[in-house]
Design a protein that fits this description.
By secondary structure, this protein is an alpha/beta fold. The protein is built from nine helices and 16 strands. Helices cover 30% and strands 28% of the residues. The strands form four sheets. A four-stranded mixed β-sheet has the order 1-2-4-3, covered by helices on one side. Helix 1 (11-24) runs parallel beside helix 9. The radius of gyration is 19 Å and the shape is globular.
C-alpha cells in the first residue's frame, strides 16, 4: 500500500491521490490530510470526493469521516456508470469533479456524475471556467466530457446542481508549449435574479467590454445570465482564446464590491497573463498535471506554484515523472506520458 503524506497539500492532493489510486488500481493511505491548514482533516467537500470515488469502484475505506486526518482507500473491482453526490454545503462541485475527470482515460463505458453544492464559490474555479475553459481545452487533446448546469450555487447555501457526462477517452500528447496569437476574449457573467434590477451581471460584462475596447483587444462571445439561486451572488469568467490554447480569469461578487470591481479583478489577472508567454493560466497549471503524465507532452505555465510543486511530488509517488525547465518568464513542465492501462 502506498502511503502519502498530505501535510503539505490541500484538497487537491487528496483528490488526485484518489484519482490515481483508481487509475493505477493501487491502494493508498493518506496521512496528515490537509495538515498545514488551520483546520486540518476532511471537510464536507473532501469527504464527498472520497465517497464518490469509493462508490464508483466499490472501494474499501477506513477513516472516511468529517475531520479525519488519515484515510485508507483500497479500490475494488466494480466500476459503476452512474453516480450522484450532495456535498451538503457550498463546498465546490468544480473541484469535486476534478476527482473523476481523469477517469475518462480508463473507463470502458460512459460515466455520468451528478453533483450538488457550490458552483461559484471562493478558492475554486466557477462552473463557467470548467465549462468554457478547462473542458474545451482538454477536448482538444481527446477528452470526451460535457457539463450541464441545472442550477448555480453561491455561498453560503450552495444548492448548485450539475451533471458531468464522460465517455472513454484516449488522449493525444498535450502540446502546450506556446499559445500563439490572441483571437478574442469571451465574457461569461452571471448573477442571481435578485440582482437583476441592479443590472449586476450586465455591468460586470459591460466593464469588461469597456476596458478591452480601450486596449484594442478583440471581443468575442458575451453571455449574461440571471439565475435562480438559493443565495445572492455573482460571478464573472473572462476567457482568452489563442491560436493554440485557452486561458481563464475569474472573480466573484461580494457584499460591498461593485460590479465594476469584479470585472477589474478578473481583467488584472488577464493583463498580467498577457505580459508573459505562458500557454495556460496559473490555476490551470496544476489541474493539467494528471492529464500530462498520462498523455505526455509539454505545458508552459506562468510559475512554479506550491500547488504545482506538491502535485508533482505526489505524481512521483505513483511513478509518474514531470521535468521542470524554468525560463525567464515561464516554466516548462514536461512528461513522457504513461499508459494508464
Amino acid at each position: 500500500m502506498l502511503t502519502i503524506d498530505g501535510s503539505d497539500g490541500g484538497g487537491q492532493l487528496l483528490r488526485t491521490s484518489l484519482s490515481l489510486a483508481v487509475i493505477t488500481d493501487r491502494p493508498v493511505r493518506i496521512e496528515s490530510i490537509r495538515g498545514s491548514r488551520p483546520k486540518p482533516g476532511l471537510k464536507p467537500q473532501h469527504l464527498a470526493a472520497v465517497e464518490l470515488l469509493a462508490e464508483y469502484c466499490d472501494a474499501d475505506l477506513e477513516g472516511a469521516a468529517l475531520g479525519s486526518e488519515t484515510l485508507t482507500f483500497e479500490p475494488g473491482d466494480v466500476r459503476r456508470q452512474t453516480l450522484s453526490v450532495d456535498i451538503g454545503t457550498a463546498g465546490s462541485v468544480t473541484l469535486l469533479l476534478d476527482t473523476v475527470l481523469p477517469l475518462a482515460t480508463v473507463i470502458d463505458d460512459p460515466l455520468t456524475v451528478t453533483a450538488i453544492g457550490g458552483t461559484d464559490v471562493k478558492w475554486s474555479p466557477p462552473v463557467a471556467y470548467l465549462q468554457h475553459v478547462k473542458l474545451p481545452l482538454l477536448a482538444r487533446f481527446g477528452l470526451d466530457a460535457e457539463l450541464e448546469v441545472d442550477r448555480v450555487g453561491f455561498y453560503p447555501k450552495g444548492g448548485g446542481d450539475v451533471t458531468l457526462g464522460m465517455s472513454p477517452s484516449s488522449l493525444s500528447p498535450i502540446d502546450l508549449d506556446a499559445r500563439g496569437s490572441l483571437r478574442a476574449v469571451d465574457v461569461y457573467s452571471t448573477a442571481s435574479v435578485d440582482l437583476e434590477d441592479s443590472d449586476v451581471a450586465d455591468r460586470q460584462a459591460d466593464r469588461v467590454r469597456e476596458r478591452l475596447d480601450g486596449a484594442g483587444v478583440p471581443i468575442g462571445e458575451r453571455t449574461v445570465e440571471y439565475v435562480e439561486t438559493r443565495s445572492t451572488g455573482s460571478s464573472l469568467v473572462v476567457r482568452a482564446r489563442y491560436d493554440r490554447t485557452l486561458a481563464g480569469f475569474d472573480a466573484l461578487g461580494e457584499p460591498g464590491r461593485p460590479s465594476e470591481t469584479v470585472a477589474d479583478l478578473a481583467l488584472e489577472d488577464f493583463e498580467q497573463f498577457r505580459e508573459i508567454d505562458a500557454a495556460v493560466d496559473r490555476h490551470m497549471a496544476d489541474q493539467l498535471l494528471a492529464f500530462l503524465v498520462i498523455a505526455g507532452g509539454r505545458v508552459a505555465v506562468p510559475e512554479l506554484t506550491d500547488h504545482v510543486r506538491t502535485h508533482r511530488s505526489l505524481l512521483s509517488e505513483f511513478g509518474y515523472d514531470v521535468s521542470i525547465d524554468s525560463g525567464d518568464e515561464t516554466v516548462l513542465l514536461t512528461s513522457a506520458g504513461h499508459d494508464p492501462a
